[in-house]
Design goal:
Length: about 350
């Protein structure tokens, strides 16, 4: 049986092909009655929009790339789910690429993987520098996630420094004074860990508490085993913290394991607070207090910005594209308090 076409839908609905096209593209000037009739015809005939043809007529492929450091880090997996959902609502397909936080891989992604099969890129860079991002002539439209900010590119993030300051203030408000920063980095870099460390230090200073560089527990990577090892080393070395600010939930979950193995009670002896609000933290024992970025909003804003840049880049000659200055968008976060800081009081 031949695949139904727009003209078949138009004939079945008793309208013009242009009207069917207007309904498919969700144009506002179609009456509700006509829209319903056309949609019923589409459903009855099993008509499917040829998205590839539609994109190619506009000089696009309909494919965008999401480039993240590691897919098995739950935050990035959860973010990818939101990006895919947002893209689908815009008839876009998402290619997911894992960079491994390797500069060569991130540069290749920034250059569109050496081909023209992606219309644009959402990139969470860890290894790139500002110089790498500065000259992107001929590269696909790009939206950056995280802390690495370049004035010539759209950028979406939460206020990592402010969020860490808020989280540390909460721990101080619980009466905690010996607060270690698991994964903290005390250097002038532009990364997320550096921003969260600055927020931690700022909260200590506001409270009149001394900052000790030894309170930063370095990790090889931001995974559970690294968090467990770092906390175990600190305890074995004589550290006696009463709180841990963990710079992601994976580190915090590892910390919970190490504290349990050393007979340290959470939160009675040590309060533990993470970042990212990943699903595992809602099922740990105790459940994990965390800073929750609005991942759905990060995805929504990033896909929206990228789609706008793609439309600018592929606008026909002579058509006004409405070029905007690069956008620096900060999305919301919230402090989610659970058992690891609050006992059994709040979920």
């Amino acid at each position: 049986m031949a695949r139904p076409r727009i003209k078949d839908v138009a004939r079945h609905a008793g309208v013009s092909e242009k009207t069917v096209s207007n309904v498919i593209n969700d144009y506002a000037h179609v009456s509700d009655r006509t829209r319903q009739v056309v949609r019923e015809a589409i459903e009855h005939l099993g008509y499917r929009v040829n998205l590839a043809g539609r994109h190619l007529r506009k000089g696009r492929t309909g494919i965008i790339a999401l480039v993240v450091p590691e897919l098995d880090i739950p935050y990035f997996a959860e973010l990818a789910r939101h990006v895919i959902r947002e893209a689908e609502e815009r008839s876009l397909t998402v290619l997911i690429h894992q960079s491994g936080a390797d500069r060569a891989h991130e540069l290749a992604a920034l250059a569109g993987f050496g081909s023209t099969f992606v219309d644009g890129i959402i990139l969470s860079p860890l290894a790139l520098t500002a110089d790498d991002l500065r000259d992107r002539t001929g590269f696909p439209p790009t939206v950056l996630l995280g802390e690495l900010l370049e004035e010539g590119a759209d950028h979406v993030a939460i206020d990592n420094e402010g969020a860490a300051r808020e989280a540390t203030r909460h721990l101080i408000g619980l009466g905690r004074r010996a607060i270690l920063a698991l994964g903290g980095l005390d250097d002038p870099g532009l990364g997320t860990a550096q921003a969260r460390t600055r927020g931690y230090r700022a909260a200590l200073a506001e409270a009149g508490l001394p900052y000790d560089p030894a309170a930063l527990l370095p990790v090889g990577s931001f995974r559970m085993p690294d968090g467990a090892r770092a906390v175990a080393r600190a305890l074995q070395g004589g550290a006696r913290p009463d709180a841990l600010l963990c710079l992601n939930d994976q580190l915090a979950l590892g910390a919970l394991r190490a504290l349990h193995e050393h007979g340290v009670r959470v939160p009675e002896d040590v309060a533990v607070l993470g970042f990212d609000d990943v699903e595992g933290g809602r099922f740990s024992v105790p459940t994990l207090s965390t800073v929750a970025p609005d991942k759905a909003a990060v995805a929504k804003v990033a896909v929206h910005l990228l789609q706008h840049r793609i439309e600018e880049a592929t606008a026909p000659d002579g058509v006004e594209s409405g070029v905007q200055a690069p956008q620096d968008r900060i999305v919301a976060h919230r402090l989610v308090l659970r058992e690891s800081t609050e006992g059994h009081g709040r979920a």
